[in-house]
Every structure is written in structure tokens, then in C-alpha cells.
Amino acid sequence: MNTKCIYWAMMALGAVLTSAQRCPYRMDIAPCVCTESEKLAMDCSRVVDIAQLIRIFEADFPSTTFWRLTMTGTYDAPIQLSFLPDGVFGSVNFQEILIQHTLIQRVDDYAFVGSKDSLSMLWITHSELTSFPTTILPLMPNLMQLDLSYNLLQFLPDLRSSSLRSLTLAHNSQLAFTDQLFTKLDQIVDLNIGYCQVETLTPGIFLNMMNLSSLYLEHNRLTHLAAASLHFTSGAMEEIVLSGNQITSVDPNFLSGTGKHAYLMLVNNQITTLAEATWRPVFQDISEPGDGMVMLDGNRLECGCSLAWLVASPSFLSHLAYGAACANGTAIHDLDPDSLQHDCSS
Ligand SMILES: *[C@@H]1O[C@H](CO)[C@@H](O)[C@H](O)[C@H]1NC(C)=O
Ligand SMILES: *[C@@H]1O[C@H](CO)[C@@H](O)[C@H](O)[C@H]1NC(C)=O
After folding, report:
1. pTM of the full predicted structure?
2. Cβ neighbours of residue 235 closer than 8 Å, sequence gap 6 or more
3. Which candidate, 224, 209, 231, 306, places its Cα nearest to that of 266?
């Protein structure tokens, strides 16, 4: 082999070594596993306790810039960590952190501080969080997605972020929050607070979310929709999901600013009347011309004269989902507009 060949062989080997060096030595971080295809990722699903996790992130990391950290237990075998202390990830930073099925109850204020500039997605779900350090959010300019669903969150102080686009707080059945919770989240596009036992919606609570498009409030304890409780400013609502509540009464002017494409889902509630003063403006907004829809399946509607205005309008009816039915089981779409009109004008 001539010197040139050896030189090229060494260059090639060097390239392999340099790229191979982006992960720490395997034994230094076991049982975490580092992988490097296009992006560097760490999987720490097998970590046994917090001391071990801290020790692992004290190892020598050739590159401290990672794409993703995954820590995923299972429903039957959650990861045995009960808290994440400040600085737990050392100098290593991540763009995405996915933590699921753990026993984590507490996250200290600066647990994720090393990733404050890089983090775009943070999930801590199916765990036992009773609180979350919201003070860190304004310091994370790139955080777009936060999912804290399936925890035991009790109270969230006001959230502030001008980057967050998707927030999921679903399945925190003891969650309480103030009227101000959402006022500093102006970039939110998707908001999910389903299954949280929410009892009331303060009028105007969503007005600051100028880009809101999906709002999930299903399976809460809402009984009443007051005026302005669903007022929006985005004009780009796609889904407003209120199914599985116990809504019995709906005030005039409860909904506005949805734009023309909104799906308003009120499946399985206890709405009995569709008063014209309340509902005509809703159907007008989504039907002239629009492709919005109202879904009222699973409500026992009184199909008397109070519905004549709706049944008489083929255009409005075309924006009412077929499942809407009278208390006696007859579908609204099967009612005879002429006989209703005749009965009600006499
Ligand atoms: C929010 O809306 C504004 C104005 O329409 C737009 O410039 C901005 O990019 C939107 N933000 C998101 C997160 O979509
Ligand atoms: C249910 O009530 C509507 C409106 O009064 C009536 O037109 C329809 O025939 C009734 N259906 C049944 C099955 O009694």
C-alpha cells in the first residue's frame, strides 16, 4: 500500500470516528441508549432512579446538542422517578423531550433550563404531576408544543408564552385555573382542556388567542354556556368540541367570531330547545356561505314549534349533522316542515 492509500484510509477512518464520537461511550450512559442516524437521540426509558439519571448526564458528552430525549414507561411498569430536579440533564440540551408513564410528581423550576433555547416540544404525560413550573415558559422562545395530559395537576398559575402553539392539559381531573390562565398565550392554535372537570367558562376567556383554531372541552362539567363564553377573535375556528358535558342551557350570543368553517360539536349533552334568538345567528355564521357544521346527536330536543324556524330552512338544515333527534327519537331531518309550519301558525 502506498502512502497515499494509507493517507486516504486514515482520513476515512477519521471521518467514521468523528461521526461515531457524537454519542458518549455506551457504558457511561447505560441503561440510556444514544442513537445517531441523522439526528442524535437519547432513550432513557430503562433508567431506575433519579441518582442514576443524574450520573448519566454527568458523563462525557462529545456533543451536547441532541434532537430528542425519550423516557417512556408503560401503564403497568411506569418509570420509577418521582421528580426531576434542577439541572438534571447537565449541559445536554434537547429539541424534543417526551416523558410518558412515570411516577413524576414534581418538576423543579430549572430542570429543563439547559434546553431553554432549543426546546420546541415537551411532553410529560401519564404521570403524577401535581404542579408544573410555568415560570420557565417565557424563557423558552421556541417551545411550540406542551402536553401535560393524564396527570394530577391541581392548579396552574397563569401561563405565558409567545411561542406556544399547542397546549394539552386534558385528563387532569382536579385542575383549577383562573380566568387569566390563557390571556398570555396569544399564539395558541390548538387548546385541549378536555376531561378536566371544568364547570364554567368565563365570558371572553378565549379572546386573546388570535390564532386559535381547535378548542377541545369535551367531557367536562359544563352545564351552561353564558353569553360570550365562546367568543373568538381568530375567525379561523375549525373545531369547538363540547361533547359529553351536561349542558342544558345556552344563552343568546354565546358564540361568535368562529369564521365560516367551524364544527361545533355538542354531542351527548342535555340541550332540549334550540331557541331561534340563540341559534339562528350560529347557523347564519357558518352557512352563508360556509361549510361549518353543528352536531347535536345525543340531545333530546323538543320538536315543537320552537324548532319550526330551523326545519323551515333547507340551508340551515344542511349544516346540522344528521344525528340530531327529537326526544321521541324522530330525526330532525325527517320532520315535515309543512306540517310543523301549519301546526305552529294556528
Ligand atoms: C398568527 O396569526 C398571524 C396573523 O394572521 C400570523 O402572522 C402568525 O404567523 C400566526 N401564528 C401562528 C402560530 O400561526
Ligand atoms: C315525534 O315528534 C314529532 C314532532 O312533534 C312528530 O312529527 C313525530 O311524528 C314524532 N315521532 C314519533 C315516533 O312519535
Report:
1. 0.90
2. 257, 258, 259
3. 224
53-98 pLDDT, tens digit each? 999 999 999 999 999 999 999 999 999 999 999 999 999 999 999 9
Closest Cα to atom 6 of ligand 1 = 211
The count of other CB atoms within 10 Å of the CB of residue 134 is: 16
Closest atom of ligand 2 relative to the 336 alpha carbon: 7
CA–CA–CA angle 146, 149, 153 (5° rounding): 100
- Cα distance between residue 146 and residue 172, in whole Å: 14
Question: H-type helices in the chain, by residue range?
Answer: 3-20, 26-29, 50-56, 276-287, 308-311, 314-317, 337-345
* Atom 1 of ligand 2: nearest residue by CA position: 328
**Structural domains of the chain in order of their starting residue, each with its CATH number:** 206-346 (3.80.10.10)
Digit-coded pLDDT (tens) for 108-153: 999 999 999 999 999 999 999 999 999 999 999 999 999 999 999 9
Secondary structure of residue 155 in the 3-state scheme: strand
Q: How far apart are CA 265 and CA 218, in angstroms?
A: 9
Contact 86, 113 (CB under 8 A): yes
